[in-house]
Amino acid sequence: MIFMKGYSLGMCGNTQAAIRELEQLKRKREVAYPALLALLYFHRLAKKVDRNEIETLEVSLKTAEENVGDQGCLLASSFFLYTGDYQSARRYVTRVLRAGTKAQTPVQIQAASLAAWIEVSRNGTTRGETDDKDEAIESLDETNMARDLDSLLVKAKYYEQQGRQKLALDQLNQAIAMHSWFVPALIEKAKVSFVEMSDEIF
Asked: I need a labelling partner for 89 at 20 to 30 A (CA). Which of 36, 83, 171, 199 fits?
């Protein structure tokens, strides 16, 4: 939660507040690596760039990367996804997925869902990129992931990109049925329903 709060503050333009939040995490082993990545990112965006601090962070980053675990890789991958560095995002999520053959553990399920979000977000149009996206979505059809909220949402976005609004709505309806409190799913359903209605009218 602290990581996401720091990231949100930074992306809203409050880099100093973001740095203060993220500083709390850089000595916590599980999240040290993604925290250092984010600190480096926001220090470089600051109005007054502290070159000495950037050099210190770069050294710390190399050490932290050697010890990063699965959760750290997933958080780092998410950070790269949010900042639009899809290649780096793929690299870190792949490290977690390669640790097991199928998405069986909660961490691997989270990784498979994140991998799908990366492919859907970059929305490549070449044959290879489309194949990567299709493969990532197909991997979510494992029994273990049938009721995973994030998997349902990314599949809905995938179908929405393809103009298959009814299939997108089906995924969103499942998400709402299982998690009625989850407002983003309700908002997405309203958006997709509006597009479907517009298509029928025009």
From this structure: 171
